[in-house]
Amino acid sequence: MPTIRIADEAGACYGVERALEMVEAALEEGAAPVKTLGPLIHNPKVVKSLNKRGVQVVDRAKDAAGSALLLRTHGVTPEEEHLARADCAEVMDATCPFVKKTHAAAERLASEGYAVYVVGEAGHPEVEATLAHVPGATAIDSVSEVEARAREFQDARRVGLVVQTTMSAARLREVVGALLPLVEELRVMNTICEATAGHQQSCERLAKRSDVMIVIGGRNSANTTRLAEISSQFCRKTHHIEGAEELLANWFDGAQDIGITAGASTPAAQIRAVKDAISQMVEKH
């Protein structure tokens, strides 16, 4: 029988668990319809489950007027929050505390005269929220982007960096290494969250000893995608799934060591369901 191991650090982080507790409390209170500004977390299964219980996702604060509105874990722009507090019956801020720290770090760098850049994916809700806290800030996510904008960094001279909380430490090191020769002063606020770093390190350790790796989490989840990328570097047979129903028995043919990890928006129940499904598959073989 193959050995099935779950990574030491995997699954829902503090910020996600906190957000889920908040939405549960809002549903129990039931004083007003419950809505979330954007998907509460990047886990389609959880969002769908909440929707079945009446929790509606809205894209604009004005679409939640009169409702109890939760601000998503990835954060929102100051303008969105202002509109929400003006129109909604109640506003609950489910923004991850680590994301809040990134906002504060970016604002501090700006106040100290640095040209602020966010090492992260342009268009990602967390990055967009952070950029909105510092008008004029820009997102960068690769060495090639740094090289293409070399003149911009040379002109800025004093550059300050904050980091998308789910960015890999390796990517941050690459970007910092490319920036250093271009600027007179570089200040880096490493705002990668502790859970993200722990998940990534644990994933790497498990992938190195596994024949097959299963990574569980939303395909729209940046931190889960990062885990799949890391796993793929050390385990050729890496599969990123959102749920147990996507598993295929032939993935485990000949495997002696099967590893499982999960993104920070993946509840423990989803991890157990995947492990149980794999166990049944390998037993039949």
TrEMBL record:
Any one Gene Ontology BP term: isopentenyl diphosphate biosynthetic process, methylerythritol 4-phosphate pathway
Q: Please give the pathway this protein is involved in.
A: Isoprenoid biosynthesis; isopentenyl diphosphate biosynthesis via DXP pathway; isopentenyl diphosphate from 1-deoxy-D-xylulose 5-phosphate: step 6/6; Isoprenoid biosynthesis; dimethylallyl diphosphate biosynthesis; dimethylallyl diphosphate from (2E)-4-hydroxy-3-methylbutenyl diphosphate: step 1/1
State one Pfam family annotation.
Answer: LYTB
Q: Which residues bind dimethylallyl diphosphate?
A: H42, H74, H124, S221, N223, S265
Q: Which residues bind isopentenyl diphosphate?
A: H42, H74, H124, S221, N223, S265
Which InterPro entries does the UniProt entry name for this protein?
Answer: LytB/IspH
* Residues noted as binding (2E)-4-hydroxy-3-methylbut-2-enyl diphosphate in the record, renumbered to the chain: H42, H74, H124, T165, S221, N223, S265
* EC identifiers of the protein: 1.17.7.4
Q: Which UniProt keywords apply?
A: 4Fe-4S, Iron, Iron-sulfur, Isoprene biosynthesis, Metal-binding, Oxidoreductase
Q: Which GO terms describe its molecular function?
A: 4 iron, 4 sulfur cluster binding; 4-hydroxy-3-methylbut-2-enyl diphosphate reductase activity; metal ion binding
Q: Which transformation does this protein catalyse, written as a reaction?
A: isopentenyl diphosphate + 2 oxidized [2Fe-2S]-[ferredoxin] + H2O = (2E)-4-hydroxy-3-methylbut-2-enyl diphosphate + 2 reduced [2Fe-2S]-[ferredoxin] + 2 H(+); dimethylallyl diphosphate + 2 oxidized [2Fe-2S]-[ferredoxin] + H2O = (2E)-4-hydroxy-3-methylbut-2-enyl diphosphate + 2 reduced [2Fe-2S]-[ferredoxin] + 2 H(+)
Q: Where is the active site?
A: E126
Cofactor(s) for this UniProt protein: [4Fe-4S] cluster
Name the HAMAP family on file: IspH
In which family does this protein belong, per the annotation?
A: Belongs to the IspH family.
User: What name does the UniProt record give this protein?
Assistant: 4-hydroxy-3-methylbut-2-enyl diphosphate reductase
Tell me what organism the protein belongs to.
Lancefieldella rimae (strain ATCC 49626 / DSM 7090 / CCUG 31168 / NBRC 15546 / VPI D140H-11A)
Upper lineage is: Bacteria, Bacillati, Actinomycetota, Coriobacteriia, Coriobacteriales
Q: Which gene encodes it?
A: ispH
